[in-house]
Amino acid sequence: LAIESELRKAFGTDQFRLYYQPQVIYGSQKILGAEALLRWHHPRRGVIAPATFIDVLEQSSLIFDAGRWILNKACQCIAGLLADQLIDPETFCLSVNISPRQFRHSTFVDDVMGAIHQHAIPTRCLSLEITEGIVIENISDTIDKMNELRSHGVHFSIDDFGTGYSSLSYLKRLPVDLLKIDQSFVRDSTNNVNDAEIIRAIIAIASSLHMDLIAEGVETREQLNFLHAQGCNQFQGYLFSPPIDEHSFRTLLLTGG
Ligand code: G
Ligand code: G
Ligand code: MN
Ligand code: NA
Question: For the EAL domain, which residue ranges apply (predicted)?
């Protein structure tokens, strides 16, 4: 497969980059965290988003090296931001997307803790985004791994919440700190009553399970105001910033958004 061998090469040659999309709190310019998102700077095809290659990584053993590279890069970024006092170690959290095979690999817990220790960052500054798919595939293994990482202080969020099939009885057994409202619900929340109701339901679930909540894919003021009126206070989306490279993210932190 041509793309697979190109991906194999991309690692050794600095073609992978992590971008950072800020997460903000309602009514302030304060950046409380960010989501790390992988980009491929292809020598001929330019910047490629992961939608076109993440499945290729996931279906080959490349996902294991890629996963470790992503965790290391994210921790290195946190260490640099801390060293330059651009973030508050007590509040800032960088979230990293974890793929199902990466999570299930026997070295996963060691990979995460290894990256944290290598860069000597506070464990609480790293959050792992998992999907409902990971949860339902092997519930007891998932809970064990999450609890082990949680005992070290690593945070968890459920990505794309509402699009999978996780039952609420599973959800309450998981050490999850944050639910991310999927952008598909946010997109139509201001003109589709069903999506608006789903958002209200997700907010009620988060509240009753004592989990934090963030809305993804917020693009308009109307969406922002609707979500805030329903009780959501944390946001991520193009309205605030697209995913940006590390240099731009640092500039944003320096200038206060
Ligand atoms: O940034 P963008 O919208 O192009 O990301 C598309 C999808 O790729 C996201 O839904 C996300 O789940 C996935 N993705 C992005 N970065 C990473 C990453 O670092 N690791 C994994 N496993 N998935 C990622
Ligand atoms: O991991 P996850 O599936 O949540 O990835 C989020 C994806 O959504 C990334 O690919 C990111 O680039 C993209 N994204 C972030 N903000 C917005 C937004 O406001 N609108 C849209 N359409 N996509 C967004
Ligand atoms: Mn995500
Ligand atoms: Na999402």
Answer: 1-257
CA of 53 to the centre of ligand 2 (A): 16
Tell me, in angstroms, the distance from the centre of ligand 4 to residue 129's CA: 9
191: which 2 tokens?
A: 């003109």
**Stretch 3-31: mean pLDDT, rounded?**
91
Q: What's the 13 CA to ligand 1 centre distance in angstroms?
A: 20
Does residue 182 contact residue 160 with C-beta atoms inside 8 Å?
Answer: yes
Tell me which residue range forms the domain holding 124.
2-254
Domains of the chain: total: 1
Place of tokens 């206070």: 233
Using the structure block, give the residue that is written with the tokens 């290391």. 72
What type of residue sits at position 122? P
pLDDT tier for residue 257 given thresholds of 50, 70 and 90:
low
User: How far is it, in rounded angstroms, from Cα 191 to Cα 170?
Assistant: 31
Determine which residue's CA is closest to atom 13 belonging to ligand 1: 50
pLDDT in tens, 71-102: 999 999 999 999 999 999 999 999 999 999 99
Percentage with pLDDT > 70 across the chain: 99
Q: Which residues contact 201 (CB under 8 A, 6 or more apart)?
A: none
**Helical axes 193-208 vs 221-230, angle rounded to 10°:** 40
CA distances from 176 to 95, 230, 234 (A): 13, 21, 16
Inter-residue contact 76 to 119 (CB < 8 Å): yes
**Which ipTM score applies to this complex?**
0.96
Distance of alpha carbon 135 from alpha carbon 159, whole angstroms: 11
- For 219-241, write each residue's pLDDT tens digit: 999 999 999 999 999 999 999 99
